Amino acid sequence: MNSGKVTTDEERQRELFDELHEIVDRPIRLMVACGTQNRAILRYGIREKLPRYLDLVAGPGCSVCVMPAGHIDAFIKVALQPDVITAACDDLIRVPGSTESLESIMEKGAHVEIISAPMDALEIAVNEPDKIVVYPAVGFEATAPSVAETILEAARIGLDNFCVIPSIRLLPPTIDLLMHDPELNIQGLLCSDHINTISDTEAYTVLAKKHNLSCFIAGFEAVDILEGLVSLVKQIRNGESVFDDTSAFIYSSEEKKNARKMVAEVFFAVDTHWRGLGSIEQSGFVIRDELSLYDAVKRFNIRFSQGHEQCLCQCNAIISGRGLPPDCPAFGMACTPHNPIGPCMISDEGICSSYFKYNVDSRPNG
Ligand code: SF4
Questions:
Q1: Does the C-beta of 328 come closer than 6 Å to ligand 1?
Q2: CATH 3.40.50.11740 fits 69-170+252-299, yes or no
Q3: Which tens digit of pLDDT belongs to each residue from 135-155?
């Protein structure tokens, strides 16, 4: 019965922590794949207050962090071509390839513009008719509708000096691959609302069944995350493996239908390379032949290689749930946000930069 008592956010958090301490009576390991949720967990100090036996590992949920060095090399090679303007997001330009980054080649005369949305790249192309504007489209499936919409708009207005390097990654095949590793021993997956944009929620239902995996979609506030953790622990204790999609109301089915239609019109899925994980079946998008004018891979004859990653860096282990930033000898020493070695320290979604910001920075003299 409702007692009429209003529970504040802080009280609710306390209740949820208490509940977690009560119900975690065995070692449980959960993966928090989303970079934004990992950042929120650190920002709210959730990690320190968890029961001892509840182990949270990170996953491949930062789209910039999972880009192999060889793909960054390809972005750089195209950016160095004459009459090219590369329009890229802020996080991406600092990510190192084998030897350079988009930021470092700006000093050598490459024209790189920082944008916040794909349509910004289109606008640059409209205003710079004598240049070719290349947009490296890095992101997960949630970003695919806006990239598809931009390409369709370019085709609609007949713009021929704009093209995209499709570098979108799809999470479900990668989660599937990781769950095959018995050493990881992940029992539950905390997912974010992001996946729900074009969400193939069915893919997660299949994953839950296939790997006996408990899944929960949560938001980004402390209470959302704690409720997700409580739900996952309860599922695991009850031997359930379901995909708990309580946030399905965020996007209407009409919005999802339209987004999926646009994506299918522009892209199809192919095997794609991920940093530290190799080639994963059907885990990325390429542009359909009908729209090849907007495909930078074809226009510039791009060949993606693996490239050379910094040997000190342990991003590969971290994005596959096999370690946390403090396990890396460079963390907070040779590698800081001011002098980053790997992508996990560069991107705001990167787990190393989140650890540094909310753990090291908050310590006295840290
Ligand atoms: S701390 Fe730096 S070097 Fe170590 S894993 Fe993270 S990004 Fe790589």
A1: yes
A2: yes
A3: 999 999 889 999 999 999 999
